Amino acid sequence: MGQGILLSGSTEVDFMIHGVFSYELFGQTVWITTTHVCVLIVMLIIIGFCIAANRAIKHATEVPGAFQNVVELIVEMLDGMISGVMGKQAVRFRNYIGTIFIFILISNISGLLGLRPPTADYGVTFALGIITFTLIHFNKFKYQKVSGVLKGLCEPWPIWAPINIISDLAVPVSLSLRLFANILSGTAIMALIYALLSKVAIIWPAALHVYFDLFSGAIQTYVFCMLTMTYITDACNTGD
């Protein structure tokens, strides 16, 4: 925990990613970093919640208890958000959108638990951007066919094709950088506060955690998922 997994507890300014331990694989040294550990913790939290939610729904009662209410509220809110943006395409993509929404949100607010948010590592956010990028173009070729894709690249005039190609290739970069930069900035500020003001950083940093981890984290989660849904819906639009 002293290797940068936790934000607090250090007297030096430190918000970098550190190696926790290494092992040899095919003659190469592979490092398990603080990001891997934090991602694992986030995944265990989500898996634990999903198991508990599954049991609650299987034993659902006509008068739901507190936990069943929470589970149903989360599902209804996610379904409402996805359906409001994607319309008839919502049924096909709600599992993916719901999954990345919950993962990104828990990752962003993990700073409230003292963890270094996994989304403050560009390797995590870029991977999410690549997955979304792949899904966008898979559906674009599926619904618009090659002719429709080529036609879209040449709009409004064929001379714009290189610019449209660059615009398409920039999607995963813009998605990932927006999320990464916003979460990293909050992580860096909190690390500076704990390191430089450690003697007086008592109780009041909680208000900053609420803003950087909870408020900003929730907004960035919503923005990432909203853009993802918009891009995918546009890709599925055949123009008919």
UniProtKB/TrEMBL annotation:
Biological classification of the source: Bacteria, Bacillati, Bacillota, Clostridia, Lachnospirales
Main location: membrane
GO terms for MF: hydrolase activity; proton-transporting ATP synthase activity, rotational mechanism
Protein name: ATP synthase subunit a
Bilayer topology annotation: Multi-pass membrane protein
Gene name, Swiss-Prot/TrEMBL: atpB
An example Gene Ontology CC term for this record: proton-transporting ATP synthase complex
Keywords from the named record: ATP synthesis, Cell membrane, CF(0), Hydrogen ion transport, Hydrolase, Ion transport, Membrane, Transmembrane, Transmembrane helix, Transport
Residue spans crossing the bilayer: 30-52, 96-114, 120-138, 179-204, 210-232
